[in-house]
Amino acid sequence: MNRATNDGDAPALLIAGTTSDAGKSVITAGVCRWLARQGVKVAPFKAQNMSLNSVVTPDGAEIGRAQAMQAAACGIEPSAAMNPVLLKPGGNRSSQVVVRGRPIGEADAVSYQDYKERLRGIAVEALAELRSSHDVVICEGAGSPAEINLRAGDIANMGLARAAGLPVLVVGDIDRGGVFAALHGTLALLEPEDQALVAGFLINKFRGAPELLEPGLDMLRGLTGRPVMGVLPWLDGLWLDVEDSLGLGADRGAPRPPVGSQTLRVAVVRLPRISNFTDIDALSVEPGVDVRFVTAPHELADADLVILPGSRATVADLSWLRERGLADVIARRAAQGRPVLGICGGYQMLARAIHDDVESGAGEVAGLGLLPARVVFAADKTLGRPVGAAYGERVSAYEIHHGVISVDHETEAEPFLDGCRLGAVWGTTWHGALENDGFRRAFLADVAGRAGRAFVCAPDTDFAAERAARLDALGDLVEQNVDTDALWRLIETGAPAGLPVVPPAGPRWGA
C-alpha cells in the first residue's frame, strides 16, 4: 500500500464512538500510525474538540493535545487545520471558543448554537485543506453521533460525515459493559441518511474469551447488516496525551522500580478545571517516580513534591484549594522547605496577587503568596513555543495563558525558565518542560535533595522514544486486530451502497 499524493480530494474516514472515552482518540492514532508505516501521507482531523488539554503548533495555533499526538503518529507536525474548533470549558458554565487556533469569544451551551452554521463551514474547509495535501485523512468524532437532541447543529459527527461524504466506523467500549446495545442503539437512533454512511463497528478494550464474544458479533451483524471490523484487546500503558480528565482514571500501573533504594513521591492536585495535565506524563515514565492525583489535604502528607498544574479557571480553582484546606497545607510545606511546583495556572495561584477582569471577572484576588509575583490577566491569549535553559539544560516548551506574570526581582527569588524559584517553590508558565530529559532529571535531583530522599535518576530515560514506542504499539494494535484490508477498502471507496436501515425503538423519523 503506497500511494502518491492526491491531486484532488484524498479519501477520508470518520471514527465515531458510542460514548466519550470509548477509544476514538487512540484508535484514530493507531490507524494513522498503521497508514504512515505503509508509506501513506496521512493526517488526523477533529472538527470540534472539547478539551482542556491543548498544545501550540509551530505556526502559533492552539489545538487539542490529542490531535497533536495523532499528528506525531502520522510523523508530521500539527497544524490548526487538524482541529479547527476547540472548546475549553471554564468556571462559569461556558467555554472559550477557539477557531483555527485563536480564541474568538466565550459561549454557553445555548449561545454556542449561534456559532454552529459558521463553524460548520470552517470545519468543512479545514478538512478539504487537509484532503488536498495528503493521501488520506482520518477523522475523529466527538462524544457520540447519537446525541439526537444536538443533531441539527452537529459539525463533528454525522453532520460532518454527511457534508463531506465520509464513511463511518463506530467504536464501542466493551469494558464498560453493554457494548452490543450501545452499538445497535447508536445506529438505530440515526436518521436513514446518516445510517447509510455507517459501514461497520470496532469493539475496544476487550479482555475476555474470544469464543464467548463471537455469537454476539454474529448477532450484531445479523441485526444491523454491518460487520465488526475489529476487536481490539485491552492494552495497558496507553494513557499518554489523553484528551480530557476522564483519562485521569486510566491505569498507569505501579511506578517503575527505582534505580536506587528509594522512590520519589509526587502528588498532583486534581483541580476541578485542571488543564494540560499531560505535563505530568514525563514524570510517570521515570523509574522510581510515583505520581498520584489528589484532592484531599491528607494525601499531600508523604509527598516529596506537590504540583499545582494548569487550570482553565485559575481564580475559581484557587478558591477550591482554600475551601478544601489544600492551600493551608501547601503553604505549610513551603514554609518547611518542602518542594512545590506550579505550572501555568498553578504558578499564578502561587503569586501574591491576581488581577482578573478577563477569565473570572473577579478583579483583585489574593494569591497564595508563596512566590514574589503578581498576575494580571490580559484580553489577548499568549501562545508560543519558547526555548530556554535551566540547570544548564536546554528546555523547549509551549505556553498558553491569559495571565501575565511580573516577578519582583528585588527579592531573593531566582529565575526559573520564564518564572522564578524562591526556596523550594518553583513557578513557570511553560508547559511540556518536563518532557526535556536532561532538565527533568536535574530538576528531580534538586527536588530529591531538598526532600531528603535518596532518589537516583535513571540516566537514560528518553521520553520522546517512550511516546514513539506507545504510538507504535497503537499501530500494532490496529494492524493485528482489525481487518485492515476491509479498512483500506472502506477508506478508498466509502461506505458500500445498500446498507440496511435499522428501525428506531420508537416513532421518530417524521413522526
From TrEMBL:
InterPro entries: Class_I_gatase-like (IPR029062), CobQ/CobB/MinD/ParA_Nub-bd_dom (IPR002586), CobQ_GATase1 (IPR033949), CobQ_N (IPR047045), CobQ_synth (IPR004459), GATase_3 (IPR011698), P-loop_NTPase (IPR027417). This is Cobyric acid synthase. The keyword Iron does not apply. HAMAP family: CobQ. Keywords: Cobalamin biosynthesis, Glutamine amidotransferase. Pathway: Cofactor biosynthesis; adenosylcobalamin biosynthesis. Belongs to the CobB/CobQ family. CobQ subfamily. It comes from the Bacteria. Residues 14-238 form the CobQ/CobB/MinD/ParA nucleotide binding domain. Catalyzes amidations at positions B, D, E, and G on adenosylcobyrinic A,C-diamide. NH(2) groups are provided by glutamine, and one molecule of ATP is hydrogenolyzed for each amidation. Residues 265-438 form the CobB/CobQ-like glutamine amidotransferase domain. The active site is at residues 344, 431.
